[in-house]
Amino acid sequence: MAWSRLLAWWRLCLGLLSVLVCLAPCVNLQPAENINYNLVHSWADKLGTELFHLGDFITRRKEVQESFKDAKVVSRNGASIVDSMAKEIEMMMDLKVSAVRRIMDTAENTALSHQNDMADKMFSYYSAKEMLEPNDPVPPIPTPAPDMDKDIGEPLIYVQPKVVVLEPRPEFHNTPVNFSVSSVHVPVNVFDRAPDVIKAIQWSENLDQIFRDNYKNDPTLSWQFFGSSTGFMRQFPASKWRKDVPVDLYDCRLRSWYMEAATSPKDIVILMDGSGSMLGQRLDIAKHVVNTILDTLGTNDFVNIFTFDKEVSPVVDCFEDSLIQANLGNIRELKERIESFTPKSIANYTAALTKAFEILEDTKVNSRGAQCNQAIMIIGDGAPENNREVFELHNWRDPPYKPVRVFTYLIGKEVANWDDIRWMACENQGYYVHLSDTAEVREMVLNYIPVMARPLVLGRHDHPVIWSQVYADIEDTKLSDYLWDINQCEYQKADVLEYWQVHDRMLEPSEMHRRKYRRMKETWNQPVDSNVYQFMTTVSMPIYDRRENATKIANILGVAGTDVPINEIKKLLSPFTLGVNGYAFIVTNNGYVLFHPDFRPIFQGYILKPSYNSVDMIEVELLDDDRPARDFNPVLMTIRDSIINQSTGSKWMLVKNHFDEMKRVARIKRQYYWTAIKKTPFTLVISYPEQYGVSHMDIRADQEIHRISIKGTNLRSVFSGKRWKIHPDWLYCKHSNRTFKTPEIELLYFLERMSEPGWRWPGSRSAMPPEHAAAMFCDRQLMQALVFDARVTEGFSNTTSFNSKDDKGNEFKQRFGVTVAFLATHSGLTRWHEFHSNAAEESGVGETFSQNNTRAIDEIWYKRAVDQHFVREESFVYSVPFDAGESNSEILVTASHAVFHNEGGKTAPAAVVGFQFQHSALYKLFHNITGNACAVDDKDCYILDNNGYVVISTRVHETGRFFGEVNGAIMKRLLEENVYKQVTVYDYQAVCFESKSDNNASSMLFSPLFHVLRVGKWLLHTALWYIVQLLQWAPGVSSHYADMYGDSNDTEPPPPAKHQEHHARNGNGHGKKDDDYWLRYLTLHRTRLKPCDMKRELYTLYKEKDNVVYNMTAHACERPFVVLPIPFSNLILLVIDQLCPRDGTVVLTVNPQPIDYPFAVNESLACYKQAREFNRMRPHSCISRHANESGIKLCGKACSIYANLGLLLLCHILSRWL
Predict the structure, then answer these.
(1) Which residues form the VWFA domain (predicted)?
(2) Cβ neighbours of residue 742 under 8 Å, at least 6 residues apart?
(3) pLDDT tens across 142-200, in order?
């Protein structure tokens, strides 16, 4: 029985087994693991070890560290540093103020002594636009002709241009100048032979002597100038005006330094007549008047514009019944909205004036706005009544004082009701102007400036010192719009040429996306440093007419000033004292930065941003919190208030620092110190990291320059050879009366002087007048540190030490293709050594490094190496250029390692060593280590850096790309598993592009020209279509364009089959439908620049050394990858199972993305910012009234009827004959 049961169980088991075997192919079993964790771990260890040994040998980092053993480490005193820097800047700025004051005194006295001189219309002066150099061709003298000047009714005057010798000078950015005379710039809207203009040019020529004396007393002075109220500007030293701009828009009276010196801060309400009569040319003139008024305002002024018909409405709805700060962003918003304004019905002047007075009263009562001058600007074609009761109620309550001035601008040639609108201005201490042509607008509008300046002139003795906001030399922001339009035209031209080459391939989505992405990348180019523009601030003072009868008109003669280049201020900050990743910046009374390491005023490399100089400090100091955009931390707001109030203080903050083209980010704790720069509206702020900024290197007493010179050390000998450079922007030593070709030659000169007996260090780093100091000055602490660094690193560039016969050394150099080894120290010294593939030195090897890597602690590789030290001391930072795989040139990998010096429990960064080697050699090493495991189709292997950029990929074209764009799904998993952390960085200085086209259908009803424009657009389309056809049909034209623009490499992909079929059916491939599509694409869709906010999602590795994710193995398709850190580096190794399905729809990017603010209808960023405006400190100077002003009756001329004698004679003859 037992055997029978056993046999039955056996048969049952065999049956079940057979069933399972039969069904086995249908069972979905998990595949075996495709990625061996231990194998990947061995790859990472071997790669990291080999690279570290290479860097260790090439850089000799241990020897470098040992060389600094005699230095000491001391604590950094932030409060003392910021106080010392502020005093240096204050001293320098006092010298500039003294120079301007001398110009002002001389100008007032000279004008007084020449008050009885007659204007000489044939007077010859050095015209900045017309003066000649000795080798310039002399223009022919025009023959006398009876031509008359239509504007003044007098014969045209020709004066031979004067000849001047100009010489380029580095202190003026190599602009050719002459230090003997000054030159005069006259705007295009000013006639230089008008009596008042030429007379002012005559007497102001006597300022040349004080210009020369000022420059002799202070050779660090930049441009000195006198801006006349008549419109011209006298500038010293003499130089030619730029001719590379399409239109000379410059008028000194519209510059902030002139406006703020000529008038105290002001609150202005602009009222624009919206009646139906304000159409056609009147509307154009009125808009031009408004724009010109806005151009005269600065960041200390407040303004709003209202249009009035039956109702009074703000042109920008969200600005409502308030005054907004006249910064570039707000002014641009007002200009754009006024451009789209169209008149409607009858104008209600009473309601408009009442609204304006109520707004000004409310602003004053609630302590908003400028709290100084107040004015109403009325622009219209006539008022039905004078509205006396409104003025009695609001403006005449405290006679004779009238708190609000009224300026009226009567528009139109034939106007009847001029007396009432003139009365408004004359009875309210304003000025009346009648305008009948756009050409006279600027000159007439500027008449309000002398009126606003009357209290200043009547006071006579009070000359306010004005410091301007940062600005770009002589550039006008209107030029930015012009350059952007030119840029768009270049894009369209490129599209036409490209279409000729690739035809319909250009219309493929992939090609269109590629082209759009390429152009967007160009707009993202926002360099911090640029040689295109010279950024500066200006100190200026008003110049008054001192004549006895001048009190009856209170005439302002002009403004005197001098520029202070921002780079010159930066040199006084001594970045050396702040150390690596430390920086300083200056904040104005409005909270805007004068300069900052994240101040990015230009985009695309050469175009000024629309609101480039109104960047608030809280928009560049980004706290490391999770707050949404523009929800600023209260702690930061409190610090900002303390800074603009010019208090002294300090604070720690956790911040996000972005760098390297805004594609990398570091989250660090920083210390901030700030103090006021006395007698200026500026506050100086310094900051440095907590981890390594609290201590710094210093030399011991026996290492000082004087002592080692006594011992017989030749200072120049430690700077032998040519393989060294110093930081080009730091002030080591400076000679006031000599210039040098390079900073290195200048340094050697001073080292020679220091070796001479009797050398004494100047008492100050900044330039002092000759009676107080010698012609040369030095930064003693920096020079001591530089010489010490040079002595201890002297052997680094020694050729024999690198070109040894060591087999190991030769093996390393050949295997890795090492091109250069380098060293940079905290004192700004950079040394390097080139490696050559053979005994004969190759010319050019290493030159690229020495040209592009001279800024020592300011280089990206230096900063990253110091940060990496606190992740792992024994490690190198490796990097490749962004998108390096897209170029055809050899890719170089840069590796750097920080050398720290420790003493007494304190540590400080002393230097960074590194090397560059060929990327192809690194790829080969990686391939040798991994064998063919990463070359097969089932695995993808990547080496990523600590910010997520591809260093090594099996597809070389992916090198330098952000990994989230290569494989977004895996990058997302790395975020979820805490390999990387996402850090959101807001860019409050971004530029966006909005369409210029007006999609509002109502505009078609008001403009009959709309249909004409549609016909013109159709003609343009047709012309472009025929041009494209001509390029394809004309053999000669085709061959010419092929030679010039043809793609010799034929790298474009072939056109898709559907387009080939279409070509086959239609002969030349241009059917009507495709033609229309192409023409729609080709036609330039113009955009305008717009300030906006953007954000970037950047990434950084978690710094936990024992991150558990690195112990996790791959688990089929649930976790189809293994990620491991590569030892001794900032890299990770990522191996992905390619057999698992990949979600290609997930893409993570580091490119800027627009921020979706909860805007209301018709609301813009300017509105959003206005609702969240920040505190500001008003200027100390406010002179808005004077008791004697009521006696001045000059308020503009009444309308006149000009008789045309020819017409009168013709009418008389006709009347006799008819």
Answers:
(1) 267-449
(2) none
(3) 665 545 455 455 566 788 889 999 999 888 888 999 999 999 999 998 999 999 999 99
Q: How many CB atoms lie within 10 A of CB 676?
A: 17
**Residues 6 or more apart from 488 whose CB is under 8 A from it?**
1084, 1086, 1087
Scored b (16 or more CB within 10 A) or e, 342-351 reads bbeeebbbeb
pLDDT digits 0-9 by tens, 559-580:
999 999 999 999 888 899 999 9
C-alpha 1110/C-alpha 37 separation (Å) is 10
**Beta strand ranges found along 1152-1209 (DSSP E):** 1153-1154
Q: Residue 695 burial (CB < 10 Å; 0-12/13-18/19+)?
A: buried
- Contact present, 976 and 1168 (Cβ < 8 Å): no
- Note the pLDDT tens digit of each residue in 1076-1089: 566 666 666 788 89
pLDDT tens per residue, range 645-666: 999 999 999 999 999 999 999 9
In order of 378, 491, 591, 930, 953, the CA distances from 50 in angstroms are 78, 48, 51, 14, 19
Q: How many other CB atoms sit within 10 Å of the CB of residue 224?
A: 25
Amino acid at 926: F
Eight-class DSSP state of 100? H
Q: pLDDT tens digits for 1008-1056?
A: 444 444 555 555 555 554 554 554 444 443 333 333 333 333 333 333 3
Distances (CA, A) of 985 to 602, 673, 891, 988, 1075: 19, 24, 29, 10, 44
545 or 1041: whose pLDDT is higher? Answer: 545
Contact 264, 1183 (CB under 8 A): yes
Q: Could you tell me where the DSSP H helices lie in 366-473?
A: 388-394, 419-426, 441-445, 448-452, 454-459
**In sequence order, which residues have a C-beta less than 8 Å from that of residue 961 and are 6 or more positions away?**
882, 883, 885, 949, 950
Mean pLDDT across the stretch 54-67?
Answer: 93
- Residue 512 structure tokens: 């269109």
Amino acid at 279: L
- CA-nearest of 810, 785, 826, 812 to 703 is 785
**Residue 185 near residue 241, CB atoms below 8 Å:** yes
Nearest residue to 369 via CA among 392, 338, 403, 345: 403
HEC string for 934-996: CCCCCEEEEEECCCCEEEEECCHHHCCCEHHHHCHHHHHHHHHCCCEEEEEEEEEEEEEEEEC
Spell out the domains of the chain, with CATH numbers in brackets: 32-72+703-732+779-835+848-979+1102-1156 (no CATH), 90-255+545-562 (no CATH), 265-463+1163-1191 (3.40.50.410), 482-532+574-696 (3.30.450.20)
The position carrying tokens 């688990």 is 1115
| Dist CA 724 CA 1116 (whole Å) | 54
Q: Return d(Cα 655, Cα 625) in angstroms, integer.
A: 8
- Amino acid 78 reads G
The β-bridge partners of 686 are 584, 673
Average pLDDT of the residues of the chain: 84
Amino acid at 396: W
Residues in the chain, how many? 1218
Tokens encoding 1048: 């010799």
DSSP-assigned states of every residue in 562-596: EEEEHHHHHHTT-GGGT-TT-EEEEE-TTSBEEE-
**Which has the closest alpha carbon to 285: 343, 206, 325, 216?**
343
Q: Do 287 and 249 touch, CB atoms closer than 8 A?
A: no
Whether a cis peptide bond, with omega within 30° of 0, leads into 403 is no
* 336 to 5, 83, 324, 1004, 1089: CA distances (angstroms): 99, 44, 15, 19, 11
Instruction: Print the SS3 string covering 908-936.
Output: EEEEEEEEEEEHHHHHHHHHHHHCCCCCC
Q: Is residue 237 reached through a cis peptide bond, with omega within 30 degrees of 0 on the bond before it?
A: yes
